[in-house]
Fold LisH domain-containing protein.
Amino acid sequence: MEKHANALVAHYLRSHGYTNTLSAFEQELGVRFNPNKPLDNDESLDSILADRINYLESIGSSSGVDYKDEDEVNKLDTIVHSDLIKSKKIELPHWSITIPNVHQTLNLGTLSALIISSSYFNAIINDKAYNLAIFLTNTRYLFIIDLDTNQIVLSKFDVFGNGQQIKTVIGIDGTSHIVLCDMNGNIASTALLPDNSSDTLQFILSLVTSPLKLHRRLITDFKFLSFNDALNPKLIGYFASIGWDSRITVGRVLQNIDDENSIDFDIIGDYKLFTNPTCLLILQDTKTNLPIVIVGRLDSSLLTLFTITSHNDSKLVELAKLSLNDSEFSSHSFQPMAITEISNVSSLNNDKIITVGTDHIPYMRLITVVVPSIHEIIKPEDDKEEILFSELTKLYESNKENTESFQSNTQILRSYIFSNFNSLSPQDKYSNAILLSRPNCSGIWIPGDDGKLRGFDLRSGTVFETLDSNDGRAKSAFIGKYGLNSQFEVMAVCGAVDKKISIWKCNT
């Protein structure tokens, strides 16, 4: 039986021209298949499968049962692209066949403490690169793991030293700096330093800087965008944050000129929304290099786009609203809960592509939309930067209140939806929506409430991989890189129920 099945597979590979795969198949089995030898029953794998499918379809039609599988659930949801999307000729790549082949369960030894925040950190410390994972527990412990060696390189209790619980921790890639967001709307920073007293690789934290008030209440999310400016060498990048005070705050991150282990935060401006924001993303406009901040909020299917008037004398300005709903007169049927960028799409010009996870029940929907360039939104009379910056300043002057209003003249961008799929990832109204975009833009990973980690192909609308990750829903997760030159993909999913950290690695 097994010998016959192997011969069928070999014949299929040869007849379809998969010569490299056939060679690998023969090498695995240690058998050489004779191309001139006919199959035992004169039936190929193609004909057997076709016959089997016809049989199942005949059973389904006679018994009134629909045998559609998961791969077919999104066929009816494929939308007709608008003329605007067609003109852009965007083509997303298929799911990369490389999948995680190493699974580890991390035990931080904290008596089953809940991981409330996790993030990937590509750190540069003493001119050496490290692939680090940052974990924060509800017992006020901060752990940092070296993803290349799986070793704990830092364990710190009560980082602030005053009993204050930290809500979110992120590292600023390409540096040694770490940003800390507490429960009262404040941010501070510290830096990783080598522990010279240890025989193994260990880090210590520099003195935590004085906190800066960003929000009146809890900071729910914080994002950072690296940026290099020859005219301002102190500028490290831009940040954006959202909080329970219904505000979005945008600012700069600057290197402290007196202390290389310290950074400063400079607030550009804030904006008051109608309702609490739910998700946040910060992108870089391809043509102007200005940051584009995208925010979703409760009770609205519109994303609000912000930018700044220029890199120098900056003001925060509401750029436009991007519709996730095809219905022109309904913006409250659902709301966005997670956003991720689909980067490195070769067919893009100056646009960006993002995927939004919605609050639909029982399954999250994935809406992929095009984010146009600032030039396309503003439509200046000339391509000169000075004219564009002038138009942005006029836009700021028209709404100095920086408060969302029903009388606002902010334009709504429609017909930018690329696809709308059922993710098949279960959720309810208490779920913590998470989307993990793969580094090579070939799909996304979705941690579901059933403990499964699903690999979703945004081009075909199908679930390509389903991995058993945790027992129940996820509290936080991240995707990053590890290995020599950071060429391999790594994911970490922190369970809200089982309190386990599942780490998935691709080492091929």
